[in-house]
Amino acid sequence: KPVLEKEFNWTETDYAYIIMAFTAAYAIGLISFGWLIDKWGTKLGYSISITVWSVAGMLHAVVRSVFGFSLARVGLALGEAGNFPAAMKAVSEWFPKKERALATGIFNSGTSIGVVLALLVTPWILTNYGWHEVFWITGSFGFIWLIFWLFFYDIPAKQKRLTVQEYKYITEGQDEENADEQKIAVKWKKLFTFKQTWAFIVGKGLIDPIFWFFLFWLPSYFASTFSLDLTKPSVELMIVYGATTVGSIGGGFFSSWLIKRGMPVLKARKGALLLFALLEISIILAQFATNVWMAVALISVAVAVHQAWATNVFTMASDMFPKEVVSSVVGIGGMAGAVGGILFPILVGVLLDKYKAIGNLEAGYNILFTVCGFTYLFALTIIHLLTRKNQHVNLNQLR
C-alpha cells in the first residue's frame, strides 16, 4: 500500500474504494462458486477458481491507474472466491464430524502462512526488481499448486489410494444419509428458509469485515503509528500474521477436543465461540500500547482469536448441513461477509481520513479496535438464538 499509493497517488478513501471493488466481486464470486462447486464437484470447481485467481493476480502488473488496479482486484476476487466453498466441501467429504474443526483449522492456517511468506518474499522482490514483478511472480504460484491438486485429489468414493478401512472410518463419522456421493439439485430459495443458514450468514457477515480490516490496514497502522518501514521484511507483522496460524489450528483443536470428550457437536462449537468472543475484547487495549511490541502482542492475540472463531464458524456449516450443499451455504455466508467487507471500509476510510486531517490518525484506529472487540459477542448472541434447537438439515428437506 505505501508503495502503490505513491505510484498511483491515491488517498485513504481511494484505497477504501479499491477494497470495496474487491469485496463486491468477492461477494458475487462466492455465491456463484458455491453453487458451481456443488454442481460440478470439488475437483473441477477448485481448479477453475485457482486458474482465474492466479491469472488475475499476474495481471495486476500491467495496470497504470486506480481504476485499472480496481479491475485487477475484481478479477482476483472472482477467482479467490472459490477457495473457501471448495475447501469446506472437501473437508466435509473427507473428514468425520469430530475431526472437521481441526482439519478446517489446518487448511485455514494456510491463509496466515501465505501472508507471512508474502511479508518475506514481497519486500525482497520489491527491492531487487519492482512492484510489477511482485504480481508476476506471486500470481504464478497458484499454477504450481494446481498441478498437485489435479494429480492427488478426488472424493473418497473415487480415490484409489484410500483403503477400505479408511473409507469406512470417514463415512461412519459422517451423517448416515451422506455415506454415498449422491448429487441433488440445490434449491437456493429453500436454503434461506432455514435458521441454520441465517446463523452462518450472521457469523460471516458481522465478523469477516473485521479480518479484512486486519489484513488490509494493519501494515498501514504500524507504518503510521510506529514508523515501520514496509519496504523491508517486517518481523513485527510476521509475528502478528503468524499468530493467526496458531489461532486457526488451536481453535479447531479446542472444539474437536470438546466433542471427543462427549459434548454435543453444536454445543462444543458455540462454547468455543463464546470463549473466543470474550478473549477478542482484549483488542481494545491496543489504544494504550506505548511501543510497537506491546501493540504486536495485543494485536497478535486478537487476530489469533479471530481465526479460532472463523475456524469454528466455518465448521458449523458442515455440522448443520449435508455435504451436498455445504459449498452453497459457505458461498452464501461468504457473500454476507463480503457485503460487510464492502460497507466497513467506507467507515474505515472516512474515519481515518478525518483523523489524519487533524493529525491524530491513531485515534481513528483506536475507535475501530473498540468496535472490532465487541462485535464477536454480539454475533454469537444472534447465532445462539437461531440455533437453540440444534437441528441438522437433512437431504429430504432440500429436495
UniProtKB/TrEMBL annotation:
Q: What is this protein called?
A: MFS transporter, ACS family, hexuronate transporter
Q: Please list the residue ranges annotated as the Major facilitator superfamily (MFS) profile domain.
A: 1-391
Q: Which domain of life is it from?
A: Bacteria
The UniProt entry, under CDD domains, shows: MFS_ExuT_GudP_like (cd17319)
Q: Which GO terms describe its cellular component?
A: membrane
SUPFAM superfamilies named among the record's database cross-references: MFS general substrate transporter (SSF103473)
Question: Which GO terms label this protein's molecular function in UniProt?
Answer: hexuronate transmembrane transporter activity
Checking PANTHER family in the record gives: HEXURONATE TRANSPORTER, SOLUTE CARRIER FAMILY 17
The annotated topology with respect to the bilayer is:
Multi-pass membrane protein
Q: Name one Pfam family in it.
A: MFS_1
Major place of residence = membrane
Keywords in alphabetical order, please: Membrane, Transmembrane, Transmembrane helix
Species per Swiss-Prot/TrEMBL record: Pricia antarctica
Subcellular compartments: Membrane
Query: What residue intervals traverse the membrane?
Result: 15-37, 100-122, 134-153, 197-218, 238-259, 271-289, 295-317, 329-352, 364-386
